[in-house]
């Protein structure tokens, strides 16, 4: 059964990846908006923002990476919605394939596409002067956090794609996710924010994730934020995974 599931998922993932490769504008579009934000904040607002020592692009990059993922997962909801409306899942049910492999194919495709977009954004940051004091282990830890974050948001996108009534509704769920980094420590220190906004910024998931990635990229000792970040990522991932699979079983039953 496991080999059957793995083989089916691999075939369907290949199908989804081919769709992405045939429309590379998906990855380009996903990367363009975060790079535009990075250019604007570094070269327009950066001189007016006091972050202490260090280049502003180094401070900014972790939040930009999260925005990249948040904007990228909208395409997962969009592609899944189109498959549902196009009757692809009904066709799959008539074939001897594992039912869950269709969902996992979309999830793996999202993970691959978003990691490529993240790599493009990091490349742009390097051109803009980003430098990191992180070693191999720190970079692997950053990659691990980003993978967990991407999987968590991707399963939320799966849930949105399964529940949406329109194409616009399928991808609109990502708008609040893209906004969250702006009310966090991603662009400015939370200490500069007024009381209620500061409380929200310091207690929402993005701040702990951004702080952890920033500390790792700077090669600094990691604070307790990393455990909070991992708790948020794993908690959201598990909740979205369970609910999305329940909704999926109801849709195909």
Overview of this structure, please?
The protein has helices at 2-22, 25-45, 56-85, 88-93, 101-127, 136-163, 167-172, 174-179, 195-202, 205-217, 225-252. With 253 residues, the protein is mainly α. The longest helix is centred in the first third of the chain and has 30 residues, at 56-85. The protein is elongated.
Structural topology:
Blueprint (H helix, E strand, L loop, with lengths): L1 H21 L2 H21 L10 H30 L2 H6 L7 H27 L8 H28 L3 H6 L1 H6 L15 H8 L2 H13 L7 H28 L1
Q: Overall mean pLDDT score?
A: 85
Residue windows where pLDDT falls under 50 for at least 5 positions: none
The helicity comes to over 70%
Question: Strand tally, please?
Answer: 0
Distance between the termini: 20 Å
Question: What would the principal axes of the Cα set say about the shape?
Answer: elongated
């Amino acid at each position: 059964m496991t080999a059957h599931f793995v083989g089916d998922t691999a075939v369907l993932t290949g199908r989804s990846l081919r769709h992405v490769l045939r429309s590379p504008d998906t990855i380009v579009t996903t990367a363009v908006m975060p790079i535009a934000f990075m250019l604007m904040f570094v070269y327009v607002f950066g001189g007016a923002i006091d972050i202490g020592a260090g280049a502003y692009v180094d401070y900014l990059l972790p939040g930009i990476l999260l925005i990249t993922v948040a904007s990228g997962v909208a395409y997962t909801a969009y592609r899944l919605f189109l498959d549902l409306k196009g009757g692809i899942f009904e066709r799959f049910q008539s074939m001897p394939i594992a039912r869950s492999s269709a969902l996992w194919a979309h999830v793996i495709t999202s993970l691959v596409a978003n990691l490529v977009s993240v790599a493009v954004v990091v490349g742009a940051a390097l051109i803009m002067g980003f430098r990191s004091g992180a070693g191999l282990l720190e970079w692997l830890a950053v990659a691990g956090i980003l993978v967990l974050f991407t999987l968590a948001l991707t399963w939320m996108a799966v849930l949105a794609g399964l529940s949406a009534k329109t194409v616009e509704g399928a991808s609109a769920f990502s708008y609040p996710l893209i906004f969250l980094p702006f009310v966090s420590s991603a662009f400015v220190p939370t200490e500069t924010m007024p009381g209620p906004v500061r409380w929200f910024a310091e207690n929402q998931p993005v701040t702990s994730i951004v702080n952890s990635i920033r500390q790792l990229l700077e090669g600094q000792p990691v604070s307790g934020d990393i455990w909070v970040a991992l708790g948020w990522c794993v908690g959201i991932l598990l909740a979205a995974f369970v609910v999305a699979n329940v909704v999926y079983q109801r849709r195909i039953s």
